[in-house]
What we know:
Elements: E1 3-9, H1 13-26, E2 32-38, H2 43-56, E3 59-62, H3 74-96, E4 101-105, E5 109-111, H4 117-121, E6 126-133, E7 136-147, H5 148-154, E8 163-165, E9 168-170, H6 176-183, E10 188-189, E11 206-207, E12 210-211, E13 231-233, E14 238-240, H7 261-271
Parallel strand pairs: 1-2, 1-4, 2-3, 6-10
Antiparallel strand pairs: 4-7, 5-14, 6-7, 8-9, 11-12, 13-14
Helix pairs in contact: 1-2
Amino acid sequence: MTTQIFTSVVNRPDFVETQYRLFKTFLKDEDWQFNVVDDSMEESITEEFKSVCDIYGIKYYRKPQNPNKKFDNPLAGARHATETIQWTYDTIIKEKHDEDMVLFCDSDMFLLDEFSIEEYIKDEVIAGSLQVRGPIEYIWNGIMFFNMSEITKIDPDLNFSDGNVEGNMTDIGGHLYYWFLKNNVKFKNVNEGGTTPDDCPEYPEEYNGISLVFGNNDDMWTKPEGGFSFELHLENKFLHYRAGTNWHTQSSWKTKEDPIRKKAEVFKQIIKDFI
């Protein structure tokens, strides 16, 4: 049994390096591997990902591309992200790591404190951040833990599709609801409480004197003064940058440069204290 960490990427090779260095600093598991699933659409960025993975000994996978698909808006991008997670699970995790402990996290999710994936998930089947749509409960795709030996014994076929579930529109992972229901499995909520939508990540207001005040939905993605929208998960052990691929900004979606430069600068200030 090993610990396997997966993330899928479309841009920001610098995030891969930062993720790896933070895992190396804080992860307590003895036998672990960081895996990057490359879903980028530009050859230059693909080469950057390959280079970073080669330098740090990161396992690199290239997801097959469909040149006829267009991803020119956030909704199309979300659907594509669903396909990437499903491909990664079916092709790699289920086939090659059916007895391992697995963390699948967003490419802008960063470990900031000592943590053991094995210890956290060894007595559970699946853990993740609670999502609620009406009566439908499932886990958010940004941070998912899988005890694959248990999942393999119960039912290895997980469906990460979004869309209509019992008349409720769900985000990525919504169809996991049916797996939990069918197999009578309760997932562990990484954010304490775990019963209502209010049991959600924390939004820090400041860091070492730097204001991080959370803004409203209109401002938080476009105006630094409206808030940087960083999230903290799992007792503040994981920092979620949020929208690291720029999916929220159609004009610059999937571009290499973050349109909110001040947010990127603040992030660098924070991370330098941990690496």
